[in-house]
Specification:
By secondary structure, the protein is an alpha/beta fold. The chain has one domain: Rossmann fold, CATH 3.40.50. The protein is built from seven helices and nine strands; from the N terminus they run E-H-E-E-E-H-E-H-E-H-H-E-H-E-E-H. The chain has a three-stranded parallel β-sheet with strand order 5-6-7, with helices on both faces. The relative contact order is 0.11.
Amino acid sequence: MLAGSVPPGNDALWDAANKAGFDTTLLRRVESDTGRLIEQGVDEAIHLKIANILLDTDEPGTMVLATGDGAETEQASSFTQQVRRAAKRGWNVEIWSWQNQLAKRLRDTRLEFPNQVKVFKLDAWYDSIVFIKGGSYFVDGVAKTVITRSCKPFNLTDTKIAEASS
């Protein structure tokens, strides 16, 4: 399952995810006290889906989680808690994250459950994951023109996966 918030939307991404068979959850951003649009409820929606899978699935499997977020939400739920719950129920868990975005408390679940939780760094596949939509953008009040960069082919080999594991 994939979850996110709109705006900003990226219809092509969400359409591709739906066509690939992913359950997608999109929530509208809400206005904060400062007038900025902020995400609300996206993490909680994912936590709920994970909890439901853990409750409704008789045979443990492998949960693949693409996040580095180890923070607890206002509702006192977190990806870290869900990883622990899955491991306690016999699930294997793969955490995929950018190295610099991986929270220590989430990363350290691999120390609590060394046979079940593995952490992988996405950095080696940056050019295959991240695309850039060209156009004119304002960054800190200055107009910037960016050219489109498509993703490179995905090179997913056992060697590359082993190198990404920590």
